[in-house]
Amino acid sequence: MKNWQKKLILIVTFSLIFILPYIGSVVRWNGLPPGYGDFPAQLAEADPGFNAVYFTLASLVALFIALFLIFPRLFGFKKNPGGQDPSLPDKKTPFPVWFWWSLPVLGISWYFMWARVHFFIAFEYYTFVPLWWAFILILDGIVYKRNNGNSIVSRKPKVMQLLAVVSCFSWFAFEFLNFFVVENWYYPNNEVFTNFGNVFWFSLSYTTVLPAIFEWYLLLKTFKGFRDRYRFGPKFSVSTKFLLLYFILGLGLAFGMGYYPYVLFWVLWVALVPLLSAAMALTGYWTPFTPIKNGDWSSVILIALATLFNGFFWEFWNFGSEWFHDSLPTNPNYWKYSVPYLDKIHIFSEMPILGYFGYLFFGVNCWIIWLIAAYIFNFDADFEVKGD
């Protein structure tokens, strides 16, 4: 298969991610869904509310995932057969200068996001971007120290720039798909900026998503316990027939998300995985699932865990900006959830507890979208950094 043909397949498949939910939604609503086109997304209608059966089934799935991640040996994973790992952090490596510069930026941004100081209320409008880029650079600084002077910023600054660009466009894609599940998340402070101001500010905000996730991934890899925990698992090779069925499953889920926006709301985080990864594998491209054929599950699991860890900070900073006050925060990035059937058990978070499991799939989606962009536009997708 020629390179242009492979790219065309990826482009068509990626387009179907948006076309199929749109078609399903038009059929479901005899037109466009409630709230379609509002930016940033607003609460269009109340979700169906709590459902004990749905909640129980989702809890069982979550329990299985938790057991798999916490007790991998129950599922055939083994200890490192090679014994000791010589790649230990050099304690003499100092933190880089951008780590120290970012600490006060994060502290000041955090303070104004939560404190809502009357005379400096306008600062709250602009806290999200400096807070998150400071956090990203702090994570990079920790990776730098633990990885003997190697990090994305120090070794691959152009990759960081590309991550920011792809991150911006990829989260706009998720915002678009959010319309078809009737706004699982929404932003109540849509009048802080003008329409143009919202597009501009949220574009800057979206640049932080992929860099934060990938920094967490690299950080986890500096710990032997994470690095080896999922490297020696069961080998799983798939046939072309399996990939085709997997691809068809993705097509069905993408359409179903639009047609059954409440029952299949979770497909927003899942459909991209079978659809895009199957298309990539069928055309011969590497995916985060490729190493599983040799028993190495670490790529796909660590990116999932990295996103879950980062998700705690997303929810923590978001919830705290509202928690200490009686009125809505003036922070335009503040979001709330309208999740069908599962909206129970909140722990210092707007997100219901089961919603955190969606972060595991979201991280895999992010890596796949990053790879799709790299394969189509011919840039180096390798963000991992190693010593000389």
UniProtKB/TrEMBL annotation:
Residue stretches spanning the membrane: 52-75, 95-113, 119-139, 159-180, 200-220, 241-260, 266-287, 299-317, 356-377
Claim: Membrane is one of the keywords in the record: yes
Keyword Transmembrane helix carried by entry: yes
Domain of life: Bacteria
Annotated keywords: Membrane, Transmembrane, Transmembrane helix
Name assigned to this protein: Small-conductance mechanosensitive channel
Organism: Paenibacillus apii
Lineage: Bacteria, Bacillati, Bacillota, Bacilli, Bacillales
